[in-house]
Amino acid sequence: MRTASCVELTLLMLLEWRLRHGYQQKKSMIQSLMLGKVSKVFLGQWISEPEMEKEMNDRYPGCMAGRTMFVIPFSMGPIGGPISKIGVQLTDSNYVLLCMKIMTRVSPHLWETLGDNDFVKCVHSVGCPRPVKRKVMNHWPCNPERIMIAHRPEQREIMSYGSGYGGNSLLGKKCFALRIASVIARDEGWLAEHMLIMGLQNEKTGEEKFICAAFPSACGKTNLAMLEPSIPGYKVRVVGDDIAWLKFDREGTLRAINPEAGFFGVAPGTNFKTNPNAMKTFQKNSIFTNVAETADGGFFWEGMEDEVDKNMAITTWLNQKWHIGAPGKAAHPNSRFTAPASQCPIIHPDWEKPEGVPISAIIFGGRRPTGVPLVFETFSWEHGVMVGACVKSEATAAAEFKGKVIMHDPMAMRPFMGYNFGNYLQHWLNLNAKPHKVPKIFHVNWFRVDSEGSFLWPGFGDNIRVLDWVLRRCAGEQGIAEKSAIGYIPTKESFNLTNIDLKWDELFSLPKPYWLDDIRESRRFLEDQVGTDVPKTIWKEIEDQEKRIQAM
Ligand code: GTP
Ligand code: MN
Ligand code: MN
Predict the structure, then answer these.
(1) Which of 106, 379, 424, 498 places its Cα 20 to 30 Å from the Cα of 456?
(2) With respect to CATH, is domain 50-176 assigned 3.40.449.10?
(3) Does the Cβ of 415 fall within 6 Å of ligand 1?
(4) ipTM associated with this complex
(5) 42-75 pLDDT, tens digit each
(6) Which residues form the Phosphoenolpyruvate carboxykinase C-terminal P-loop domain (predicted)?
């Protein structure tokens, strides 16, 4: 299975690709975009310096002619914090400037904080110099045929051409906070991950625990981070909804910061029932991209049908007249809201704490319609890293495919990996060393379906029940888990099932043929895509898992 998701709109297909050798000196990394095409590559593509030079010279000279160039000094993480990093972005897009002010900390004082120190150099152009020769649609200048999102990880440089899409143009986000930061993190001994960070406070004892969760794009991070619990007992607060920078402190506690200052969230499906906290966050000072507009100047997207007047005149994201019930979509499926995190009603009071919050558990997950239970706990850090490396998820299929496909998205980082994936796994494994107290690692799946295709798990606010079990395991509670071939599974008696009707056995069943197939397919994937760079420890974990499944 080698397909590209258009969900993040960052992957693509250009030039030479070398995953097996991964990052090599004097190579740059390219993430570019060709909408509607399926990528033949998986974990990033690499190009030599001379070839890169040629591609740049073909694009950049004169690319901002006639436009205003903005210089944006920004900090990822609280300004001056020990884990924070500074970047400077040039851009010829006013949209990008406004969004950067929401998503990062932009301040003239940054120049003083920066002094003579190094910073991440970010250049962005929509690739549409004036006088404009191409037709500009809906005031959205871009140059889709020539998009090239390039990174020089060793030089800490990002060059982005031709695209105004968030992931490609708000360079602090995926380009810096994940691709470049993962390389800095490798060099400095920490982690930059595609993870939410949330706090769960026990309302009885007042004790609070923080967790991180890594799910692929459009698999529920923003929703989980802002969850409204369906059962009493926990106060939930969000620290971050997309990216976490994790570092062990001197005592060996893993701490996480959210390097961002805003939420860039999927709009469709967001409403006052599914995610009221997100709705409340973007009522002011927010920017909406590729959504529809109501006649009275409000925003609209699929999922908001019950929240606007049925007869409201609506203009779609493509500037066409539309009304609720009419054919076609009002908003693009990946349309987004951009809102200041500080406006979220459940933002954690410590969300800007420079040293971060202590992490008790890491959770991986994806969209797995069959085979994969609601939750399991891995046996060890090493087993957990293997489980993370084998994360898969159902993608909305690209145009060439009929139906849906399950794609690998290792560590939920497939489009965001800044260096060789084998080395990345080894880096994770190396972190389990004194004095580090590594957190427990879990895997969840909100998306298992029954034979009729209906979700077996209600999800959203009920996900608190899973987190409750996770936290109890972290607290060392015994007798609430049973060992299985793939990890510890909750016992039905121990799980909070108040006011909920469940097909428990179906939700937790582990079909042997499915899991045998799964582990063999994962092995093939790693052999194919990472080859000799896969750490021995990961092969050992895969062998052991296969033996346990054989013995089922
Ligand atoms: P990125 O911002 O792209 O990284 O994605 P994300 O991980 O933040 O995903 P998001 O929270 O925006 O959720 C994406 C989709 O998953 C939305 O359509 C949600 O309605 C759906 N979703 C989220 N949580 C659940 C859940 O618990 N159950 C089900 N069935 N769907 C969910
Ligand atoms: Mn994301
Ligand atoms: Mn999100």
Answers:
(1) 379
(2) yes
(3) no
(4) 0.99
(5) 777 888 889 999 999 999 999 999 999 999 999 9
(6) 190-548
